[in-house]
Each structure stands twice: as C-alpha cells, then as structure tokens.
Amino acid sequence: MGVDDSYQTRFSPRHLLGIEGLSPDQITVFLNKSENYVEQNRRVDKATQLLHGRTIINLFYEDSTRTLTSFELAGKRLGGDLINMNVDTSSVKKGETLIDTAMTLNAMHPDILVVRHPHAGAAKLLSEKVNCAVINGGDGNHEHPTQALLDALTIRRRLGGLSGLTVAICGDILHSRVAKSNIHLLLTMGARVRVIAPKTLIPPAAERLGVEVFHCMEDGLKDCDIVMMLRLQRERMTRNFFPSIREYFRYFGLDYNKLSHAKPDALIMHPGPMNRGVEIDTEVADDVGRSVIREQVEMGVAVRMACLDLLTINLDSGERRA
Ligand code: ASP
C-alpha cells in the first residue's frame, strides 16, 4: 500500500452521513480525489474498472435530477453495478418501512447504499442497521454532504482555495440541507459565512453555528466572494413564510442591482433546481462570466465518483489499490 493509499484510508470515513464532524484533512482528501475524476470525466473514454464487482444501490424517497443521475454516472464510470430503486414502484408503496426496505436490500449484499429521504436522520438510522457503507444523498432539512463537497470543489478550482473567502448563502436557510452542509464545510475550511434571508426563513439561534445573519441582501452581499442562492423549499413549508413571491423576489431575489454590492468578480452559485424569477433573475443565472451553476453540476459527478471510491477503500480495509 503506497503512502497516498494509507493517507486516504486513514481519512476516509466509514459512511458519508454529513459534513458536520469531518476534519479539514478529511474534506481535503475528498476534494483532492474528486480533482482526478474531473480530468477523467473530460476524456472521451471515461470508464475505469475500479469498482468492478461492487454493487451500489440508489434509494431515493424524494425527487432528484442532479444527485440521482450523477451517482448513477459515477457508479457506472467506475465500473460498478448500479441499481436505482424506484420507490414509486417498490414495496414502499405497499407500506414497507424504511428500515425493512433497507434490511431487504442489505440482504442482497450491496457495497454502498445512497439514500435520499424527507426525514432528517434517515441516513444515519440506516447506517446503524446495514453492513454496507451509506452515503447521505440528502435527509430532510438536515444535510446534503455531496452537494457541499461539489460546491467546495467548484470554488476551490475557481479561486484556488476556501480559506479567507466570504460566502453569502441566501434564501430559504431554514429548510435547506444544502445550507447546513455548506455552513459546516466552509467554516471548517476557514471561510467566513453569512446567511441572508427573511427572519422567518432563518433557523433559530443560527448565529450559534458561527455564521453572520443578515436580513437585507444589500448589506449581506457587501464585498462577498461567493453568492450562493437557494430555492424556496415549498415542499417543506407548513405555513406561509413570506407574503408573496413577488415581494420575495423584490427583496431577496438576486438581480444585478443586488449583485453590485458583492465583489465585482463574485461568483454566483445555485444547487438547483432553480426557480427563475423567484430566488434568481434569469439573466444573472445565465451570466456566463459570473455564474458557475453548470460547473457545479459537472463537479457533482466527479465528487460522487470520489465518494464511491473512498468509501469502498475502507470496505476493503485499505487493501485495494487506488
Ligand atoms: N437539490 C437540492 C436538495 O436536494 C436543493 C433543492 O432541492 O433546492 O436539497
């Protein structure tokens, strides 16, 4: 086993359930590994056999475009056998519980289970029941670790690092797992984080996370390096959190006017799916000079390849060559 192998083995977690609790070294191992896969994905022949003989199951209880597709591509490009469980046509529809479904899948000896679920804590619960590695593909409003990693990779490639940057995360912080994972990652890597939202869409005691809270876009965006916009997660809203979409866009939608308060070369990010004219103006979203939204999607495949790679290293107790 080479030096790099043992380093990766030491810093690769057994599961990837969240960013909270990961060390800067662990995050760096994920990002460095992803970097290799960016190059591989740009080649004509993108396939390797690293995960030959491995089985990966995507178990998604919530809709997904980017995360599901990129995990599927990631598993296939690494030569693994990948199955997408369609919850809508499975026994989940017959009332089977999450745990029973997971135990059923576990009996088929998968190596990795990628889980997306509307309830916070679902991925952790599964990880305590199954033998395989579990990757959290988004659990309620709790965490979405691979999104934060792909966001970090995008920023690092553009700006050379994360430490010392000022990042504004804007919009529905309360219901967003993307915001939570990004806050943990960015603070761990030495960035400053501001959250900007109406009072109703900020979690209670947000400051305790170590972020600065703003309720005005113009103030919060001042001199930021990164402007990260979030969708209003209406599927998680139990009441009215703002008077109207029109008013929301007027005060919190990103347009060139508000953007002018950030640094002149500040990058615009969005995890998708975007709601144009709600949290972001369409011209800003498509600004090829400033918006890195498409790049985030590209980085998503590389990051998920790195996650599958690193999590299977530990299944082998570090015996597999990287
Ligand atoms: N795709 C991201 C998520 O699954 C963000 C969003 O849905 O708005 O959390």
Features:
alpha/beta, 9 strands, 12 helices, binds aspartic acid, single chain, disordered C terminus
Describe this structure in words.
The structure is a single chain. By secondary structure, the chain is of the alpha/beta class. 39% of the residues lie in helices and 14% in strands. A five-stranded parallel β-sheet has the order 7-6-5-8-9. Strand 3, helix 5 and strand 4 form a beta-alpha-beta unit. The C terminus is likely disordered. Bound molecules: aspartic acid. The site of aspartic acid (ASP) has 8 residues, from helix 7.
The average pLDDT is 94
Number of strands: 9
Strand order of the largest sheet: 7-6-5-8-9
Strand count, sense and barrel status of the largest sheet are: 5 strands, parallel
Bound molecules: aspartic acid
> Approximately how much beta-strand content do the residues carry?
5-15%
Return the string of H and E elements. Answer: HHEHEHEHEHEHEEHEHHEHH
Q: Report, as a whole number of angstroms, the end-to-end distance.
A: 9 Å
Count helical runs: 12
User: What is the molecular shape?
Assistant: globular
Q: Compute the gyration radius: what is it? A: 19 Å
